[in-house]
Predict the structure.
Amino acid sequence: WRERGSASATRQESDSNGQTHTRVVKKGVKDFNFGRTLGEGSYSTVLAATDRQNLKEYAIKVLDKRHIIKEKKVKYVNIERDTLNRLTEHPGVVRLYYTFQDERSLYFVLDLASGGELLGVLKKMGSFDVECTRFYGAEILDSVAYMHSRGVIHRDLKPENVLLDREMHVKITDFGTAKILPDPQKRAVGGDGSSGDPMDGAETDRAVSFVGTAEYVSPELLRDKNACKASDLWAFGCIIYQLLAGRPPFKAANEYLTFQKILALDYTFPDGFPEVARDLVERLLVLDPTSRLPVEHIRNHRFFEGVQWGKALWRQKAPRLK
Ligand SMILES: NC(=O)c1nn(CC2CCNCC2)c2c1CCc1cnc(N=C3C=CCC=C3)nc1-2
């Protein structure tokens, strides 16, 4: 399994002539103290870990090689690693520092988000007010816009995958089901490396083997197996609704009934749902992905009036959750 990621440690060594050389040393399991389990997947476990040399804390995703091969998931593991290697320059995305392996497992050394899941905080609060929804909505949107600009569709955006760091800023995770778009430079597109086309990434000719989490799945994925950038914006609309209402817009007794509600756009706003947010959600929860509000128009929507986008957003103090 070819490894990627920057060298993780260096050591100064002198040779017989007294010459000092810098040796690149790959870290390994013995360099970490492993702590609590943060999450479990069908072929991976995520553990909190501390680097014994510099005491830095990480989340280390341990993937069982035998299980990956048996479950035919090698492609997904490579997609996840390649996706994470593309998304290294944004504060809102969990960063992959480096990987290493041993006989049995692969190890992804990742940012630790010690604040847990946004969903956990939402459950404690019941629902967020407009100010908190605006802040967390802005950080999620900024992170999704960055992913899309790097040719990545998340495809399973949901409050469980929106983590919080120590300062309660957003860290989006779980790219195991992400989709990497063909390099737009190879197609006639605009200069910023992103086609800007909401249908970018639509899989029209190949069967899509993955469907996200029922409550946040887009109608196009259910109807035509099309996963495109606009599918992440549908999930974003569901998240904005859920932060303010305390529940997702489409939820039924089982997955099949939830899918029927999505395809029929069968949802209502609770009394007291803020008008300005309602207008934004109504422009995102649109059945036709090409008619959904694109990222730049979302940023300029009056719901986000006063938000300082870019670095300033990530430098400000997260609002006290009340
Ligand atoms: N699948 C992953 O890559 C992954 N899974 N987790 C834990 C999951 C728990 C269920 N909801 C989705 C995330 C992580 C990561 C990346 C790296 C990562 C970094 N920090 C945390 N932190 C947590 C802290 C408290 C509770 C859960 C997660 N978790 C992860």
User: Anything to note?
Assistant: Residues 38-39, 41, 46, 59, 61, 94, 110-113, 116-117, 160-161, 163, 173-174, 176 surround CKG (CB under 6 Å). The chain has a mean pLDDT of 91.
